[in-house]
């Protein structure tokens, strides 16, 4: 039997517990192979020595070794497969680490976390606001020339660093680093992200030789700023299935100004396959703008950069998508023998905004370019993108560079658009050609063939919507290529003939024909537009449908197709033809559909002061009620109203021309200035003989406003007047016209008189007053039919008869004129009505009854007095 001594066991208990704890820790360690250690960098130095601080060099070496390299390094936890390097360097502000030589390669997976330093913080802004990250660890590798942070083991994570690349590269995801993450860093700029860290840095920010890595990410904290380098991201030898998401490449941290990567923002080269740049969500969008040459380059051969996807990015615009921030040449360059890449896509959110590029030079760089050399670009798809517009899709970005930019250059076997839903691009507002299929490639090869253009919206470009011919560099088209019988000519896309539209209706019925190669089936696509190109050919704003037609032995085919009704405001119909090999024609000649009311012309009225000298331009606007697809003309000519051509204005006539899409034209009539006082005068501008429009308002009126001051007529009364009772007195006054040039007509005096004074007919009028008359009446003086020539005075007198007492003291009288040449003048008039004193009023004698009543009152008074006297004596 075994017995236990409880007292001894009590003394042994601590030891037993410690043994049990050790066994548990060992069990957990054996059960969880993902052990982790954390090493904290405490100094900015570069030594590997026992000096009381831990350097980054010591930390990397310890992680690689799996043990502390010296007594300074203290790993918290157990070295394993998920180790971390943190930072806790004393003091505030940015801490700069400047290795004197290449750091050790990172040969064991690790997380290097710059956000662990002090008050550093990750970005919280959305993609529309750039990055507000606060970075406090600045790793300056510029003193060395090597491979920067050379990662040879994955998955490694590098985050929260401001990193200045060395002479070769900043971060190198080398062979073996698969599955790594580069997130939340500023690479190539100062820690604030406001300027390049060093001028003319010739290093790549990130070089990738491995697969399945993520550069950036869809969370705001993962966003990198990659600017101020030679190349931003270089996905090179064997770099496949990598994700590049949510980054700012070529801009400042705010995403509003350029800090160029000298060459490219992102370069996918031999033989990068299956990499994805961007994504279908807003969070995955990269802003790749402001770079020196290209935004994105897909190149190789052989082997080739193939099956890469570029989608959902802003390329050539700022973070808002509204302002141009162009890459120097092309936004996207698919070069050399790069095959089967997809730029955009048909899915929602897959389309890129590729606009505002081509800011260097004065020749036509494209927004998107598929290199025309060789056959390697076959299979490249450009789909669902906005190429030329801002992110709104309805206007160009603000601040476009003053250069001629082509929308797309297509290479051999490439496709712009597609037959599926969502595949069409919007190619608009490019100053040059919309889509160019050149006669030669970058290396001067043969004309491009099999370039397919399908279902796109192509409109409002400065030159042809589609141009077969011209040159690759400079990217310049050669204009409309006419059809030839049997389509035997050769050149870009075989100079495929375009269809001829015979008739079209707004309801969508389109009839026409195609002449091309014999016994061949073609896809005819139909488009509606608001206006026709000034050349009369194309463009195609809205894809409305297609029909397959097969030519006969003579190369002829006809079509009669019922399509959806044309969109409102888009009455113009055009078409393209694509052969079985994928060669698409230029746009056909425009045809206006029937059933569309002609736009109406109107002209406005103009009123302005004539001026005192020279001429005053009266600018009339003639407007169309709606844009016309055809050229509109209308004649105009001036005509006299009360104004006279030659003296008051200059007679004018001519023709106004409205090119397709133009809504307003102006014409000018010059009015002669003078200092003559005269009434306002009018003249007219009449419209006539319109073509391709009607006239809704045919006459505009020009009103010449007299702006010369008119001195008022003057009235003056002479002295005072005494008006006897029931008698009359003559009142005399003058009216003077002081104007040196204009006659005063219709002047009258309207002056209220006291009640009881009546105006009778005038005594007389002086000569030259043209038979003026006074109207008899009570209380007023009223004269009419007066005509006073310039510098003329007339004297008048009127009889005023007094019927009752009254006095009038008047100091202001109104002088008016039906020609507006009168005014208000001061006058003085005193009128006193007098007569003999009135008789004293008579008093009638009392009647007998009045006397009797008086005596009776006296009697009553006496009796009353006597009674009062007796009573007083008794008392």
Report the strand count: 65
User: Main β-sheet: number of strands, strand sense, barrel status?
Assistant: 14 strands, mixed
**Could you tell me the mean pLDDT?**
83
Number of helices: 3
- Low-confidence segments, given as residue ranges, are 1-33, 745-756, 761-768, 778-782, 805-838
Description:
This protein is mainly beta and 875 residues long. The chain is built from three helices and 65 strands. The strands form nine sheets. Strands 2-1-3-5-8-11-14-17-20-23-26-29-32-35 form a 14-stranded mixed beta sheet, with helices on one face. A hairpin with a 7-residue loop joins β64 and β65. The N and C termini lie far apart (161 Å). Residues 1-33, 745-756, 761-768, 778-782 and 805-838 have low confidence and may be disordered.
SSE diagram, text form:
Blueprint: H1 6-31, E1 37-41, H2 56-65, E2 76-77, E3 83-87, E4 95-97, E5 110-113, E6 137-140, E7 149-151, E8 157-159, E9 162-164, E10 169-173, E11 181-183, E12 186-187, E13 204-208, E14 214-216, E15 225-226, E16 231-235, E17 243-245, E18 248-249, E19 264-268, E20 276-278, E21 287-288, E22 294-298, E23 309-311, E24 314-315, E25 332-334, E26 342-344, E27 353-354, E28 366-370, E29 381-383, E30 386-387, E31 406-409, E32 415-417, E33 426-428, E34 435-437, E35 452-454, E36 457-459, E37 466-468, E38 500-504, E39 509-515, E40 521-529, E41 542-550, E42 556-562, E43 572-578, E44 591-592, E45 600-603, E46 606-609, E47 615-624, E48 632-640, E49 653-658, E50 664-672, E51 681-691, E52 694-695, E53 699-705, E54 714-717, E55 720-724, E56 728-737, E57 744-752, E58 757-765, E59 773-774, E60 777-778, E61 780-784, E62 786-788, E63 792-802, E64 807-816, E65 824-834, H3 848-874
Parallel strand pairs: 1-3, 3-5, 4-6, 5-8, 6-9, 7-10, 8-11, 9-12, 10-13, 11-14, 12-15, 13-16, 14-17, 15-18, 16-19, 17-20, 18-21, 19-22, 20-23, 21-24, 22-25, 23-26, 24-27, 25-28, 26-29, 27-30, 28-31, 29-32, 30-33, 31-34, 32-35, 33-36, 34-37, 45-52, 46-53, 55-65
Antiparallel strand pairs: 1-2, 38-39, 39-42, 40-41, 40-43, 43-44, 45-47, 47-50, 48-49, 48-51, 51-53, 54-56, 56-63, 57-61, 57-62, 57-64, 58-60, 58-63, 59-61, 64-65
């Amino acid at each position: 039997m075994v017995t236990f001594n409880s007292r001894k066991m009590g003394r042994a208990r601590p030891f037993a517990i410690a043994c049990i704890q050790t066994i548990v820790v060992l069990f957990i360690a054996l059960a969880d192979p993902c052990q982790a250690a954390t090493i904290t960098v405490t100094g900015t130095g570069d030594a590997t020595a026992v000096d009381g601080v831990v350097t980054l060099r010591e930390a990397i070496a310890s992680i690689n070794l799996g043990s502390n390299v010296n007594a300074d390094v203290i790993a918290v936890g157990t070295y394993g497969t998920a180790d971390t390097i943190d930072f806790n360097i004393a003091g505030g502000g940015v801490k700069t680490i400047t290795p004197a030589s290449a750091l050790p390669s990172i040969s064991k997976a690790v997380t290097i976390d710059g956000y662990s330093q002090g008050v550093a913080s990750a970005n919280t802004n959305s993609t529309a606001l750039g990055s507000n990250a606060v970075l406090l660890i600045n790793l300056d590798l510029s003193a060395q020339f090597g491979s920067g942070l050379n990662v040879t083991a994955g998955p490694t994570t590098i985050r929260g660093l401001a990193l200045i690349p060395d002479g070769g590269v900043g971060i190198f995801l080398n062979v073996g680093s698969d599955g790594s993450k580069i997130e939340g860093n500023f690479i190539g700029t100062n820690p604030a992200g406001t300027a390049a860290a060093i001028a003319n840095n010739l290093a790549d920010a990130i070089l990738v030789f491995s697969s399945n890595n993520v550069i950036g990410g869809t969370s705001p904290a993962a966003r990198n700023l990659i600017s101020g380098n030679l190349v931003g991201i270089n996905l090179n030898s064997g770099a496949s299935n990598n994700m590049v998401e949510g980054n700012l490449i070529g801009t400042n941290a705010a995403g509003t100004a350029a800090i160029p990567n000298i060459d490219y923002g992102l370069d996918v080269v031999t033989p990068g396959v299956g990499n994805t740049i961007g994504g279908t969500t807003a969070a995955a969008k990269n802003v790749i703008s402001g770079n020196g040459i290209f935004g994105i380059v897909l190149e190789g051969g052989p082997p080739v950069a193939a099956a890469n996807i570029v989608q959902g990015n802003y390329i050539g615009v700022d973070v808002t998508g509204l302002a141009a921030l162009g890459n120097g040449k092309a936004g996207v360059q698919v070069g050399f023998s790069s095959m089967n890449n997809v730029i955009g896509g048909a899915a929602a959110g897959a389309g890129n905004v590729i606009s505002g590029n081509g800011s260097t030079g004065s020749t036509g760089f494209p927004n998107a370019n598929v290199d025309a050399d060789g056959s390697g670009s076959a299979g490249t798809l450009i789909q669902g993108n906005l190429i030329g517009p801002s992110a709104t899709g309805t206007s160009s970005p603000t601040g476009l560079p003053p250069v001629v930019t082509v929308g797309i250059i297509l290479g051999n076997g490439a496709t712009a658009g597609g037959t599926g839903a969502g595949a069409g691009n919007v190619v608009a507002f490019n100053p040059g050609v919309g889509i160019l299929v050149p006669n030669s490639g970058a290396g001067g090869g043969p004309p491009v063939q099999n370039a397919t253009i399908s279902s796109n919206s192509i409109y409002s470009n400065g030159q042809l919507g589609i141009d077969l011919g011209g040159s690759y560099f400079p990217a310049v088209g050669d204009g409309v290529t006419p059809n030839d019988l049997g389509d035997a000519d050769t050149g870009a896309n075989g100079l495929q003939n375009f269809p001829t539209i015979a008739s079209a209706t707004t309801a969508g019925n389109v009839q026409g024909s195609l002449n091309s190669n014999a016994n061949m089936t073609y896809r005819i696509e139909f488009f509606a537009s608001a206006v026709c190109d000034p050349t009369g050919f194309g463009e195609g704003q809205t894809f409305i449908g297609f029909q397959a037609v097969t030519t006969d032995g003579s190369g002829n085919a006809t079509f009669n197709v019922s399509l959806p009704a044309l969109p409102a405001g888009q009455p113009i119909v055009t078409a393209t033809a694509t052969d079985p090999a994928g060669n698409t024609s230029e746009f056909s000649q425009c045809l206006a559909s029937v059933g569309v009311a002609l736009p109406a012309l109107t002209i406005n009225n103009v009123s302005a002061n004539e001026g005192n000298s020279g001429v005053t331009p009266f600018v009339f606007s003639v407007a169309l009620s709606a844009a016309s697809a055809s050229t509109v003309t209308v004649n105009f000519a001036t005509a006299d109203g009360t104004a006279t051509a030659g003296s008051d204005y200059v007679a004018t006539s001519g023709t106004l021309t409205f090119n397709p899409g133009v809504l307003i034209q102006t014409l000018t009539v010059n009015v002669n200035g003078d200092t003559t006082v005269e009434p306002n005068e009018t003249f007219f501008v009449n419209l006539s003989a319109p073509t391709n429009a009607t006239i809704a308002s045919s006459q505009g009126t020009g009103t010449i406003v007299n702006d010369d001051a008119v001195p008022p007529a003057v009235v003056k009364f002479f002295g005072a007047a005494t008006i006897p009772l029931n008698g009359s007195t003559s009142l005399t006054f003058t009216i003077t016209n002081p104007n040196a040039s204009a006659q005063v007509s219709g002047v009258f005096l309207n002056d209220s008189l006291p009640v009881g004074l009546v105006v009778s007919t005038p005594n007389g009028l002086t000569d030259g007053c043209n038979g003026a008359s006074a109207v008899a009446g009570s209380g007023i003086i009223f004269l009419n039919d007066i005509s006073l020539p310039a510098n003329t005075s007339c004297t008048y007198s009127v009889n005023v008869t007094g019927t009752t007492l009254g006095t009038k003291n008047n100091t202001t009288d109104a002088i008016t004129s039906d020609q507006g040449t009168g005014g208000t003048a001061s006058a003085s008039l005193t009128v006193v009505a007098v007569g003999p004193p009135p008789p004293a009023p008579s008093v009638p004698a009392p009647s007998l009854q009045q006397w009797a009543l008086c005596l009776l009152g006296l009697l009553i008074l006496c009796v009353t007095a006597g009674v009062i006297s007796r009573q007083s004596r008794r008392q």
